[in-house]
Amino acid sequence: MAPDDQPLVEFIREHAAAKRVVIQARQRLSGGAIQENWLLDLLIEGGPW
């Protein structure tokens, strides 16, 4: 995990009510004139899911 991933990981962990979240892979998607679109492969442990 990159150091700048921590705020995103914490956001996902809190909103998913998970014990742990790990970003396993990421890929920036093409397109989008005004925005950045990303595909994330996450490992989410614990929580109601």
From TrEMBL:
GO terms assigned for molecular function: transferase activity
Protein name, entry field: Phosphotransferase family protein
The keyword Transferase belongs to this UniProt entry's keyword annotation: yes
Keywords noted in UniProt: Transferase
